[in-house]
Amino acid sequence: MPTVLRAGRGMALWEKAKQDPPPEKLELFSYENNPYARIVREALCELEIPYILQNVGEGSPREKLLVDMSGSKEVPFIVDPNTGTRTGDYKKILSYLFQTYAVPTS
Asked: Where in the numbering of this chain does the GST N-terminal domain appear (predicted)?
């Protein structure tokens, strides 16, 4: 149902996505039912950015890794080893992804 409501977001390449993928995969901390993490995953798919998904539901052994990296349990949280960026808050993540991995408009 969420896919229907979001009109197929994340199911097609965004027209301004860079052609070459980043050298290293990004790392996304999230959990499946988090609506903000879903929006970030859709953007990663639209931009065709390879990433490692770290599911960190309550009680997950990966939760400590998230807290060590971000200082909190809040998701989504993304780590980009290509630029050294580590950020949370889905709006900041989306802005970062499209500014970094999309072709600038002229």
From this structure: 28-102
Domain boundaries defined on the chain = 26-101
User: 26-101, which class in CATH?
Assistant: alpha beta
DSSP-H helix ranges across the chain: 2-5, 35-46, 63-70, 90-101
> Could you tell me the sign of the dihedral formed by the alpha carbons of 65, 68, 73, 77, in that order?
negative
Backbone Cα Rg of the chain? 14
Per residue of the chain (106 residues), give pLDDT as tens: 444 444 444 444 446 767 788 999 999 999 989 999 999 999 999 999 999 999 998 888 899 999 999 999 999 999 999 999 999 999 999 999 999 998 876 6
Instruction: Identify the helix (H) or strand (E) that includes residue 26.
Output: strand 26-30
Write down the residue that tokens 């909190």 correspond to. Answer: 72
Residue 30 bridge partners (DSSP): 55
| The residue count for the chain | 106
Sequence-separated (6 or more) residues with CB below 8 Å from residue 7:
none
